[in-house]
Structures are given as structure tokens and as C-alpha cells.
Amino acid sequence: MNNERRSGDRRGYQPSRRPDSWRTPGAGSRGSGGSGSERGERPAQVRGRQDDRRQDDRPRRDPGPEIPDEITASMLDREVQRALRGLGEGNAEATARHLVMAGQLLDEEPEAAYTHAKAAFSRAARVDVVREAVGIAAYRTGRFAEALRELRALRRMSGRQDLRHLEADCLRGLQRPDDALDVIKDTDTSTLDLETRLELILIASGAHADRGASEAGLALLDRIRTKALNAEQLDRFHGVRADRLEELGRTEEAKAVRPQQPAATAASEDEIVFLESEDEDDIR
């Protein structure tokens, strides 16, 4: 077992369900975070070099796991296919097929998805979407240090901010909740959608609990306008809130919150999710 994995309940985050560009249609939930966890367990419970942009098809060190014949590069999102055009033709095809497999296996067989993502990495380490695939697969299999490294590399390469919640959760998995809170505080949320902003606050709540400050974690949750959440988001929110209440010994309140809540009307992503705070440091 990878020594970066840790056990224990994750308190505060249930991954996103949105598809990633390297995941093919029908591949299931988003790797950036989607997992089998229900009430925000830690990733450990979920189980689940060089620049190769050379224009030749010389054999690589490791061909990686086998891929069924029906898996083709054309199954990838077109934007990802364009990102692979700088590779030699044969290498681009092989890399793409490994990415397809990684996306299709991520939910049910995350370890197998990880091996395919690593095979793609061995061929195209400087393609940002490949770093994304490795980072998410590493996260899903509890390899938090590797996931954090790859997600940071992706952000440097692409400027993307939409996976900062995973960076923060990796730090939680590495028992660094203070650093997780720093990442969240330093994230510009103005360009993020409702789902990602929600996940940031849920992770922050869990990080506070990791520090033994469940009261502060609960206070963060009380800032969320639940009317803005859809049914799935609302269910995650109530699960995390129940965790905080239980940690504070408020078991009866937790039991009342824990059952599935009525579905909420979906809100526009432009709607503000969090109540304004007079103290900008209260996320800490």
C-alpha cells in the first residue's frame, strides 16, 4: 500500500460529479474529485521524463497495461485530442487511448485508471491534460503527495484554478490542515462555478475539524445559502454538517440532519453561494 495513504474519516468533502475533458461520454463521475465516498470520507477509504514531444514513434520504456481494440483516440474530447497533436502520430494515439481507459475506469477501478494515467504520463509528461489525469487518479487512490505535485504542475502549466479544492484536500490527506486552509484562502473564487465553491467551503470545514476546531467548521457551513444548492449538493452539505454536529456531541441534531433532505431547486451558477462575512479571516 502506498505510504501516502491515510485512514480515518474524511470530514468535509464529497467530490464533484462533473465530467473532465479527458473522460469520455458515459465514463461516469468527474475524477476531480468524484469518488465512492458518501459522507465525505477521506480519500484513503475510497480505493479505490522528460518531454516526449518528439516526432518519432520509437518504442517507449513501458507500453503500459493492455487496451481493448475498441478503444480509440477519437473517443476523447476534441480539445484533448488537439492538445496531443504535438506528439508523434503513434505516440499521440497510444497516449489518447490510455487517457480514455483512465477516464472509463476511474469510478469503478481507480487503481487500474491510475496505471493507465501513468502510462500516458510516460509518453506525454508535458501535456497538461495528462498531468490532470495523473493528479486526479493519484488523488482517487490515496496517493496524496503525488496528486498534489501533479495538480500544482497542472495549475502552473494551464493557469487553471478549478482544481484548487483537490489540492487543499490532498494537504488534508497529508495531515496538513493549516496548509489546506491557506490554499483555500488564497484561491480566487470569482471565476469558479457554484459546485467548486461549495466544495472549497466543505473542505475548509473539514480542515478546521482536522485541527480540532469543529465549531469553526460548523460556523463556515452556516454561511452557505442552501437554497442555492441542487439536490446532490444539498445532500453533501447536510452530511458534512451532521459530521460537525456529531464531533461537537450534538448527536440528536446530527441525526435530524443526516437523512436525505428534499430536493432543492437548482440555482444559477451566478448566484452567490456564501453569505458575506465581516471578517475576511473567518475562513481560517
From TrEMBL:
Gly residues: compositionally biased ranges: 28-37
Location of the region described as Disordered in the Swiss-Prot/TrEMBL record: 1-69, 251-284
Cited Gene3D superfamilies: Tetratricopeptide repeat domain (1.25.40.10)
Biased composition (Basic and acidic residues): 1-21, 38-64
Bias (Acidic residues) ranges: 268-284
InterPro entries, per the entry: TPR-like_helical_dom_sf
Listed name of the protein: Tetratricopeptide repeat protein
Native organism: Bogoriella caseilytica
